[in-house]
Amino acid sequence: MENIKVVMCDTNQEELNGYAKLCRAVCEKSGLRMALSAFSSSQALLFEMSDRTFSASVGIVIVDPANGFEQASASLRRLGYDGIILYLSRGADIKYIYQAFDARAYSFIKKGDLERFYIILGGAVETARQADNRYIALSCAGEYRQIDINEIYYFETAMDHMACVWYAGGKFVFPCSLSSLDERLRDCGFLRIHRSYIISLNAVHRISYDEVVLNNGKAIPVGRGNYSMLKEAMANKAGT
Asked: Contact, 106 vs 84, CB < 8 A?
């Protein structure tokens, strides 16, 4: 089951708990497991979201502008967060609508309208899932990359517990195992064809029994016994 990270911001703990349960139900219906981070102050929220590695993992932020979070969403955008923001509030002040618009919020939902919340959140979850399938966020020793998966050629083992991604913008070494990457990316058009390599099927120029040549000219060895799996994956891709 895939994961989706949701951040909720509200000073009312009872309401936060109730809507968190609804969020979890919507995510499970979409085949996702929700990871929740909850904040009761805008300062705590902004401090955590200033960490690019953390914010890149967040799919949806749900904020109540009437409870001390008036400027938080605009600040999130200035910090570089480009994911989904939902406004959820009992307040009906027009200024909250304007703030939602200025912060490019996905929608504004009034607390108590559970049916609308369920519908809007369902759409937001699917939008976040699609966005998550377009990028991969990586970090190492204070450096950060958010890479469009369509620009990736391949991953390779760099050293113990490290991997290297080669993409249109160059390369980046980061802590991760190929096994973890394989599990994370197998439904995103990537295939492990060797114990040391994972390739993007979109980047394949031609294949043979013992190697794959990518669009950038790089030749990648095919592991013993992996050719039939590679051939099948390419055939399935051609048929879609």
From this structure: yes
